[in-house]
Amino acid sequence: MAIIDRLEEIDRRAREVAETLSRPETVADSRRFRELAREHARLEQGSRLLAAYRGTTQRLAQAEEMLLSEKDAELVAMAEDEARSARDELAGLEQEIRLFLIPPDSRSGRDIIVELRAGTGGNESALFVADLVRMYTRFAEDAGLKVELLSSHPTELGGYKEFIIAVSGERAWDLFRFESGAHRVQRVPETESGGRTHTSAATVAVMPEAEESEIVIGDKDLRIDVYRSSGPGGQSVNTTDSAVRITHIPTGLIVTCQDEKSQHKNKAKALKVLRARLAERMEAERNSELSAMRRSQIGTGDRSERIRTYNFNENRVTDHRIHETWHKLPEIVAGNLNEVVAALEKDRRETLLAEIARSGFRQRSPGVCA
């Protein structure tokens, strides 16, 4: 489909949404009204671009028609200036339209849950999880996002077998969406007496938080067990049964939370994680149905996919999806991920723009330059 055809569809949809917004039943439904208002704000931008494109195309056609018919030197010069100006405007509008047609990520603006788990490498992997937790926490806080601990399973050496946080704020998903996957670390562990470099790994999953209305969980689908929370080595750290383990019977998913002293708070946090995991599973199932479609260069986001290597000996961080390396490992591990995220976002945008460019603009009449 030509790019202008897509804009015309957007313009038609903008008119439909505007008409729906004016209905009393829509105004009475505040949630639906807000959703449609957000959609209309974006669609309206497409309508403005379409009107500007049509107007500028018409100006160019008129100027070029004058060039073919006029003999007066002064009028010819005016027509040449007008044609040149219209071509420049069209070039800018076409790029603006391509950027506009990059599909918005429906998960933008959502709060997220970030799960980190130790992988291959034993204690060193658990220590690497602790490094990643610090990196993400500082990155989030520097961006003005709120970080809340949901669950953790510490080890005796100061690492974590698992660490789950909630990150909330307008930019949470946009800043973290590229982090899902396997992260590899190469360094000499503190416990290594021979000075040998070890390779360990940890996995990260970034999931948008699911609203209760989006993922409805029936009480009959849950088995809830309570027990006393424990610390490293299994020692009891609480004298009451405040820890909660929730099993989602239909899927077999299990979530445990024990960091709060309140059983009620642990249950609420566990349910939040469970809803996010169920939503992620549903999204994965939808994506598998579309597996014939071309994958984005950014990768699938699957946790089994190796996405990044942190090599301490060489002071480098390499992102394997975009084949880019930064020789500033201490800064990145300290939470300065902005340059990495920007590079991934740039690659994503260029990939999507290339796809849109292949659609092309509708063929114009002879004499009208593209």
Describe this structure in words.
46% of the residues lie in helices and 20% in strands. It is an alpha+beta fold and 370 residues long. It has an eight-stranded mixed sheet, sandwiched between helices. Strands 6-7-8 form a three-stranded antiparallel sheet, with helices on one face. Strand 7 (243-248) and strand 8 form a beta hairpin. The model is unreliable at 290-301 and 363-370 (pLDDT under 50).
Q: Could you say which structural class the secondary elements and strand pairing correspond to?
A: alpha+beta
Share in β-strands: 15-25%
Helicity, as a percent range: 40-55%
Gross geometry: flat
Number of strands: 11
Largest β-sheet summary? 8 strands, mixed
Overall mean pLDDT: 86
Q: Which stretches are poorly predicted, pLDDT < 50 over at least 5 residues?
A: 290-301, 363-370
Nearest-angstrom radius of gyration?
27 Å
- H/E series, N to C? HHHHEHEEHEEEEEHEEEHH
Strand order, main sheet: write it out.
Answer: 2-3-1-5-4-9-10-11
Name the assembly state. single chain
